[in-house]
Amino acid sequence: MLLNTKRTSLRDYLLHAITGFLLLTSLTGCNTRIQGCLDVNAENFNLNAEQSCDGCCTYPSLALSLTQKWGDRNFALTDTLFDINGQPYRIRGLVYFLSEWTWVDGQGVRYHVDSVNVTCLDGDLTYSPDNLLIDTEHFNYPMGMIRQAPVMDSLRFVFGLNQDFSCLDADITGTPPELTDQSPLWNPLSGTLETMRLIVQTDTAVESFDTIFISDEAISTLAYPFEFIPGEDSQFKLTVDYSLWFKDVNTADTASFRHSIITNFATSILPTQ
């Protein structure tokens, strides 16, 4: 009789131990949920995730691919050009800003790249990183990070800069140099960033150059049907035709360069065909 009691106690002990282990395993399993990025527009969207992670989502980037032409040929600084009077000249330097990129869907909703923060002399500055410094040597320009993937109808951008970046200091780590006094578009006479810097050889027989700064701004809005793919990098493809920019130039009057560029800017940049 005593032997049976011992066997019953041992069996009950083992039964309770196994039950407790199974219950603990079950509870632990219920509390372990797969964490991951649940934003379908992110590069690392995890379809199997059950719980959103904290700040782990990474988002695709947007870039501009800009083809630079003179009529039906590629543009080069060595080209000999002709003004409205048939006088030859050369453009020996060309640098300008394109900024404030906005794309609009069929319902009129506007989208932008994500803003970023940078340290200023008087605090922090929030700005859009899509202030593109365009030159004749580069054709691909990173614009920033995108979080939405709309189907867009049109594209808007600015020739120049609207935001004040005077608080930026090139000596502060992380400061974009193109937005400081180290920029090729910094005008030491005015102490400001300009829209464009143009270096012109108005007489091709003489090694003499005029530097023209343009501070005016212009806006371009164009039809641009485009569908972003969630989680994938995207690229706007545009072509600028400088023959349209400079079609009204008179080399005897350097002010005509500014007038011709501002007047013809909106029609000179179109979707790449």
Briefly summarize what is shown.
The protein is an alpha+beta fold and 273 residues long. It has helices spanning 2-31, 242-245, 255-268; strands spanning 35-36, 51-52, 61-70, 73-74, 81-82, 88-105, 110-111, 116-120, 123-127, 132-134, 140-145, 151-159, 186-187, 192-193, 196-201, 210-214, 218-227, 234-241, 269-271. Strand 5 (81-82) and strand 6 form a beta hairpin.
Which tags fit this structure?
273 residues, alpha+beta, 2 domains, 8-stranded antiparallel beta sheet, 5-stranded mixed beta sheet, 19 strands, disordered N terminus
Indicate the topology:
Layout: H1 2-31, E1 35-36, E2 51-52, E3 61-70, E4 73-74, E5 81-82, E6 88-105, E7 110-111, E8 116-120, E9 123-127, E10 132-134, E11 140-145, E12 151-159, E13 186-187, E14 192-193, E15 196-201, E16 210-214, E17 218-227, E18 234-241, H2 242-245, H3 255-268, E19 269-271
Parallel strand pairs: 1-2, 3-18
Antiparallel strand pairs: 3-4, 3-11, 5-6, 6-7, 6-10, 6-12, 6-15, 8-9, 12-17, 13-14, 15-16, 18-19
